[in-house]
Structures are given as C-alpha cells and as structure tokens.
Amino acid sequence: MDPVTAGILVAIGLIVLMAIGTPIAFALGAISLIALVADRGMAELTYFGETFFDRIAEFGFVAIPMFILMGAAVASSPTGRDLYRSLDLWLGRLPGGLAISNIGACSIFAALSGSSPATCAAIGKMGIPEMRSRGYPDGVAAGCIAAGGTLGILIPPSVTMIIYGIATETSIGRLFIAGIVPGFMLAGLFMVWTLIACKLAGGYGTPMVTATESIKQTVRQNVDANIKALIRVLPFLAVVLGILFALYGGVATPSEAAGVGAFFCIALAVIIYRMWQVRPLALIMRDALRESVMIMLIIAAAEVFAYALSSLFITQTVAGAIADLEVNRWVLMGVINVFLLVAGFFLPPVAVIVMTAPILLPIILAANFDPYWFAVILTINLEIGLITPPVGLNLFIINSIAPDISLRDVLMGSLPYALCMVLGILLLCFFPGLATWLPDLLMG
C-alpha cells in the first residue's frame, strides 16, 4: 500500500475512534497497533510495547508530573480567590472592569498553575457567577474566562512547553522565557476586546460599593483585606520567579526545578491556608495523578503513533510534500499554521505537539525560522483549539461550571478572543522579537 493511501486510512480510522468517544490515548494506540500489524504482521507487537514504554522512561519527563503537582497545589488552595479579590478592587470600577480583572487573574493564575483547564476552572468558579450577578451578558462572562484560561499553556511554567522542549531537544528554560511577552501580549489583547465589547453594550457591572461612596472610602474600607490577600499570593509568585531563575541561570534542570517548586507550593498551601487535614492534600495528589497519567499515556501512545506513521513512510511523505512546496517561506508558515489550527480543533495540545513538532522542526529550521519563536506560534494555535469546537476543552469546562449558560453562548462569547489570538500570531510574524528578545537578553 502506498503511503498516501495508508495515511488516509489511518486518519479515517483515528477520526472514527475519536468520534465514538474513545479516549485520545487509546485511539492513538489502537490505530497504531492495527496499522503496524496489518503492514508487518504480529511480530510488531514486541516493538509496540518497547516503543510505548521506552519514550516515557526518559528522565526529562519527571518535570511534567512535578509541574502538574505544583499547579494542583495552587488550584486546590484559595489562591485564585485572593487574586480575584485584589484585582477586582482596582479594576472593578472600569466599564467591563470585572471581566478585565478576571482576565488579569487568569494571566497570573496561569503562571502559578501552568494548566489551562485548572486556570479556567479556578477563576471561572468565582468570576462567572459574580459577573452574571452584576449584569454582564452570559457570552461575555463565559468568553473572557474561557479565553483567559488558555494562557495557562503559554505563560511559564507551561507543561506543553516542556513537552515541546523534550520532543524537539530544545532548551526548556529558553522556551519558558519566550512565552512571557507573547503571553501577556495576548492578555492585553483580551482586555482591550473586553473593554470594547462592554463599551459597545453600554458598560456592564456595578462596583462592589454604592455609587454615593467615593473611591477613597472604597479603598479605605477594603484595602486591608485585599493587601492581606495579595500578600498571601506573593510567595507563590516568588516560587515561579525562582523556577525561571533556576532554569535560565543554569542552577537546576527542569526536573529539579519542578520538584522543588512542587514541594514549596504544597508547603505554602499548607502553611498559608492552613490545609492541615489529610483530605485536601489527598485531593491535590489525586488531581495531579489523574492529569499526569492522562498526559503520559497520550505521550506514550503518540510516540507509538509517530513510530507507525514513520514505519509506513507516511511521515516522510508528508514532510517531503511540505518541504517540496516551492513557495515563499511565509506562505509555507501559513500552510503550517492552518495545519496546526485544524489539528488543534480535534486533538489536545499534548498530542499535537508530540506528533507534529519533530516532523515540523526540520522544515522550520530549513526555512530559517527560529525554533523558539515557532514554539510560541504553535502554542497559540493550540490555544485557539481550546476554545473552538468540536473538542474545545475550555468550552466544556465553562459549561460544567455554569450549566445554565448554553454551549452556543459560551462559543459565541469565545470566538472574538480566538480572533485576538489570530491577531497575536500576525503580530508575532511581523515582530518576531516579541518572542525572541527576552530569551536573547537573558540567555544570550
């Protein structure tokens, strides 16, 4: 069977398995096993098992469950609540200020947790009911949280950046730093659109105090509680800054930094929020274990899938077809962006990165694009997939938090933020220094 026909059959089989509700790891593993056995016989079962376990046995993958554990400790503590209260005090009086403060809280919480679903859930549980109680439309309330949650895979420390670094053998510390400026740029674009949307609608929300009270009285009455809340958050931010310093300063490897960060976040959650009982700590471990196992299964299955594609010469054929396109390198980048965007519609970010990054990186380098800049472009494309159907993980998280908001309203409220991400990609193409300047400054 020629590689093109084999590729079409594999793609159809994978789509069918996912359409009937098969978990992505099992779908990848099953279609890989069927393809290998059909092509080479039962002897491939041996290589299937070896490939499945060998890849995830690498020491570098230790960083993934450690960063997930660090994010679980933050997500399970009242850190998000404290962030929300502090930002709402200063931004709540603006038109759409509460929605803007939610995006700001998502940006900071993303840096603490490194996970988009955790960010979306933690801030959404508080932000959505509060915005709706102040008169915000359901679409605005749901959309700003769904979009703000996507920042979790871009602003460091990011699990997806770790996976990209391992898959492409690039510096994880440099990848983390490359995501800082674009991450906050996207947060700024989200805030601008939120302000415009609320202005067009006549402004929404009432301050936490009555209209007759002055700003000075508001600050006097609330500043003590909010300063205390902010002080409780600062140690967690210090841990994130310490991790970044350890990585780009060469003090520790990503796995070591992740382990220390997880320990300190758990210790801070216990000390600051008095989480002394066994049950809260057990919940942290349970949540971290679930997400870690899910991600590691996807990585292992995606590695087997990549092995199957390579064995059937599908990977080489696709890469060759892209490389043989005699077009301007920016047209090539446009084709790659469309491919990543479509892949992000159907697959989770981890699976897309593991399957495509090793294939695309040589093409990117041959076209003289920076691999760290491309990591940011890839991540933003996958962020769009988190708030667009049919998978749209953040959409379903928002729908589970506020089930009385229809999925259609959540989607319509999120689409303008997806366009903001497209604008962010264009800005990075015109000004690549947004992603490369800070890593070059700090790491040479």
TrEMBL record:
Known function: Part of the tripartite ATP-independent periplasmic (TRAP) transport system.
Superkingdom classification of source: Bacteria
Lineage: Bacteria, Pseudomonadati, Pseudomonadota, Gammaproteobacteria, Oceanospirillales
Membrane topology of this protein: Multi-pass membrane protein
UniProt subcellular location: Cell inner membrane
Transport among keywords: yes
Transmembrane segments annotated in the record for this chain: 6-38, 59-78, 98-123, 175-198, 229-251, 257-276, 288-310, 330-361, 373-402, 414-438
Protein keywords: Cell inner membrane, Cell membrane, Membrane, Transmembrane, Transmembrane helix, Transport
Main location: membrane
Family annotation (InterPro entries): DctM, TRAP_DctM
The organism of origin for this protein: Halomonas kalidii
Subunit structure: The complex comprises the extracytoplasmic solute receptor protein and the two transmembrane proteins.
Family affiliation: Belongs to the TRAP transporter large permease family.
PANTHER family: C4-DICARBOXYLATE TRAP TRANSPORTER LARGE PERMEASE PROTEIN DCTM (PTHR33362:SF5), SIALIC ACID TRAP TRANSPORTER PERMEASE PROTEIN SIAT-RELATED (PTHR33362)
Pfam families from the UniProt entry: DctM
Protein name in UniProt: TRAP transporter large permease protein
Domain TRAP C4-dicarboxylate transport system permease DctM subunit, chain residue ranges per copy: 12-434
